[in-house]
Amino acid sequence: MKKLDILLAIFVAFAWGSNSVAVKFNLGEVPAYLSLTLRFTITSLILLPFVKIPKIKFSDLYSIAIVFSIFYVGLIYLGINLGIDTSLAVIIIQLSAPISIIIARFKLHEHFTLNSIIGVALSFIGVLVIIGQPGRYNNQFQAIIILFIATFFCALFNIQSRKSKNAQPLSLLCYINVIAAPHLFIISYFIEGYNIVNIISNAAPIFWYTLFYSIIVSGILSMTTWMYLLQKYPVYKVTPFSLLVPFFGTLLSTLFLNETLSWNFFIGGVVTIIGVYISNRKKRIT
Q1: Does residue 285 fall inside a structural domain?
Q2: Which domain does 92 fall in, by range?
Q3: For the chain, which terminal residue's Cβ has fewer other Cβ atoms within 10 angstroms, N or C?
Q4: For residues 96 and 151, is the Cβ–Cβ distance under 8 A?
Q5: At what angle do helices 205-213 and 3-26 cross, to 10 degrees?
Q6: Is residue 62 in some structural domain?
Q7: Is residue 284 in a domain?
Q8: Distance CA 214, CA 123 (A)
Q9: Measured between alpha carbons, how far is 69 from 173 in angstroms, rounded to an integer?
């Protein structure tokens, strides 16, 4: 990768790591799907005047929008809203990197590696070490399962982005948000069932600060950069940079959310990150 692209990938990792803290503050004020509805709606309004409809099939665009909004970002928000530690959440989500490589082997015919097999095994062992500490995460089990599911859809979104080479990333992001916003509103209305006007009007300023941070930094800037990199380089070259997300996310959640880290968490997290790193090294077996 070019040096500039490496710097861009590091920026994305920082943005996503810091966004996990922003989301935690955000969901302290507004329910998960309502917050997402506002995020996707405002993003659409910001981008629509500047982009054209992306040059891909509508069925593909619709699929990407649903995978990204409801089953990837939506499940992450739901997991965090259920009270999972932010540092634990960012560790689990990084399992999407080895899963992306596995899917890319079969869907995109990118080379599978022995390191990928070893790395995937280590990653799952690491996560089991993290969540296996007796009693610590008993009240977070549901959120952990939800985040495990989100990792698969995160990987699927990576593959879909890689396949959408003919679409400009900014246009793709805009119309993902256009399609996703009404779906998220319907989910919010029927599941959360809150008085939307009262919630929004009573939200503290921190909600709006974190919402626009997610929209601009984690959303528009980071997502378009990530899609650009995935369109330009093979999956195994881009996804290793997501390994930096736990570093930034855990560091910032410790500083701003007063979360504490046990040795059990530290060892499991290190094993997980090592596994994901190994899975991205290049030793072909096919």
Answers
A1: no
A2: 3-279
A3: C
A4: yes
A5: 160
A6: yes
A7: no
A8: 28
A9: 11
